[in-house]
Write a structure and sequence with these properties.
The structure is a single chain. By secondary structure, this protein is of the alpha+beta class. The chain has four helices and four strands; from the N terminus they run αβββαααβ. The chain has a domain of about 100 residues. α3 runs antiparallel to α4. The N and C termini lie far apart (about 60 Å). About 5% of the residues have low confidence.
Length: about 180
């Protein structure tokens, strides 16, 4: 009897769980039907499978690549200390991407150490001028940081090769 009681309770609990799962299961969603407008005597084309990737449209109809700007994310985030006096009071972590002319995309890998050095110098100047104090993610402080990073990128890539520097992630941890 001592052995049958726990087994009976386990079976009863299992049955109640399965019953509750079946009873509370949401109704399957009906697939949305798109309206098909066909002219007289024509059939509607078959609907595209949402799991299939869309066919790539060729630029100009000749299979050429679109030569617009390319986004290149830098591999590692930047860690910038924030000082107050002689003491580190916070650390700011910033991830950056560079919008660059498509033909120069591969050049980013070759000069990435110089680009990172230039970006770090700009971020240190920004931190030392209280750019990461207070509400640093809004307004003029972010615009100042973006423009300083763009100037730094254009020093490494002269000309109009770099069109924009994007700040993809930014976080501050007070110590």
């Amino acid at each position: 009897m001592k052995i049958l009681m726990p087994i009976g309770i386990a079976i009863l609990g299992l049955g109640a769980g399965v019953g509750a799962g079946v009873a509370l299961k949401p109704a399957p969603e009906a697939p949305a039907k798109e309206a098909c407008v066909a002219h007289e005597g024509e059939a509607c084309p078959p609907a595209a499978d949402p799991l299939e990737p869309a066919p790539a449209a060729a630029a100009g109809g000749h299979g050429e690549k679109d030569e617009g700007p390319a986004l290149v994310a830098l591999d590692k985030p930047f860690v910038v200390p924030v000082f107050r006096g002689e003491k580190v009071v916070a650390m700011v972590v910033v991830s950056v991407a560079v919008e660059i002319a498509a033909e120069s995309e591969t050049a980013v890998e070759a000069v990435q150490p110089r680009l990172r050095d230039s970006f770090l110098a700009a971020m240190f100047r920004h931190a030392n001028s209280a750019g990461f104090d207070g509400a640093f993610t809004t307004g003029q402080k972010m615009e100042d940081l973006r423009s300083a990073l763009l100037v730094a990128a254009r020093q490494v890539f002269p000309g109009e090769v770099v069109s924009e520097v994007l700040i993809t992630e930014i976080a501050r941890q007070d110590l």
